[in-house]
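DM from R.C. (forwarded with permission)

"hey, sorry to bug you on a friday — could you get me a structure for this? deadline for the figure draft is monday and I only need the backbone to look sensible"
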Amino acid sequence: MAGTHRITITLTPGSRGELQRVVNGIRDQFGREQLIHVTAVQATGEAADGAQARVLAEIAAERARQDARWGEQNHPDGTGAPADETAAATARRTCEDNFRDGKGTWRDIFLEEVHEAIAEADPVRLRAELVQTAAVAVNWIEAIDRRNGPGEKD
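My reply, with the result:
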């Protein structure tokens, strides 16, 4: 039975050529019988490059795989406990200390963002922290790809 997947892709100058490759990759992943709706959105602000478009397309494809396997999920957030605030403060200090000492890593930045998100009880602030966490993850993946070339697909 054919399913429907809706994916939004941000198009930027120079990334339009990526769109067809992304759509073909999604169809290859889920089968040509799948109905694929692609909404193209022009980015505002600083343009993303083709590398970022590829990473975001991989993330969109992973989200589609998750939905196909688990369906829509609606769990409690489970965030905002006092111990979470302590862990966020510790992660923040560790990140700052490591960068001050010239030893900072992507792990430090990512863990700081994750812990800050987990510490938030307010849904609006939690969402903002999760966006920051996702942005750091995308940036880290881009850095890996710059060092090693784009990763192998599962």
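R.C.: lifesaver. Residues 38-47 have pLDDT under 50 and may be disordered.
me: no worries. DSSP finds five helices and two strands in the chain.
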